Amino acid sequence: NVFPHIILSKHLVKNILYVEGGLKNKRYRNTIKTLSDYNSYIYAFGTNQDVEFDNENTLDLQTTDEKEVYVYMKNVIGKSEVFEGKLSYGYIEHAPIFYKVPYYPNGKYLSSYIDVWRLHANANYEWQINDLVGVHASANYFNYDTIVSNKENINGNLGVSLNLDEKIKINTSVSYLGKRKSVGGFQDSLQNYHIDYNNIFDLNHQLHANISIDYNYTKSISAYLRINNIFNSKQDMWEGYQEIGRNAWFGLSYSF
């Protein structure tokens, strides 16, 4: 594989406005580890699961190749306030996707791959207002030239952090994950599985609010509280696998 990397950059206003653009290529190998990190409900050959498939029905491990043209800018709006934006368009060869194995109603997933053109717009905003309050936000928009299983078109996150007297730190966040389409599979006469674009399941959007509180009593004693999914969303993360509802945990730590 031979592909040029071309990057052009310039500081339009020194230390304030920076722009960059060019052509990039990214290649990575898909492994059982990387696929299971993204989708923990996969069938992995040889693991402790209900079904062991033969060699025709194990995870397909291929190399993904991304080629894109992009433009990026970074603008320092003020003291401790930064905006970043990126717009890219490219071709992805062997983009990994997953389809549900029709073995039983709560079946697991096998991997497949698709070649796709993708438009991606990204924006990030960071503002440390003062020693007490900080704000961060990010948003992503994706547009594909075909259906890409379990990939959203839009996602975003907004968070506020509070630092109280160096002892109490509070982080709050609200995140949004857009609607997705989950593609199913079918079994042929030889009992091999294949992706089935005639079997599509719609996944609803997800809206989450989380809060975390850390309290440092001394250098050696601390405690924390995490409250997740405050809105009690119970949508499907993957078809047949519903996300956990409102949940919380508390912890103490002591170092010596």
Q: How would you characterize the overall build of this protein?
A:
The protein has about 260 residues and is mostly beta strands. About 5% of the residues lie in helices and about 65% in strands. The chain is built from one helix and 15 strands; from the N terminus they run ββαβββββββββββββ. It has one helix at about 30-40, and strands spanning about 5-15, 15-30, 65-80, 80-100, 110-130, 135-145, 155-165, 170-175, 180-185, 195-205, 205-215, 220-230, 235-240, 240, 245-255. An eleven-stranded antiparallel β-sheet has the order 1-2-3-4-5-6-7-8-11-12-15, with no helix packed on it. The protein has a two-stranded antiparallel sheet with strand order 9-10. Strands 13-14 form a two-stranded antiparallel ribbon. Strand 13 (about 235-240) and strand 14 form a beta hairpin. The radius of gyration is 22 Å and the shape is globular. The mean pLDDT is about 90.
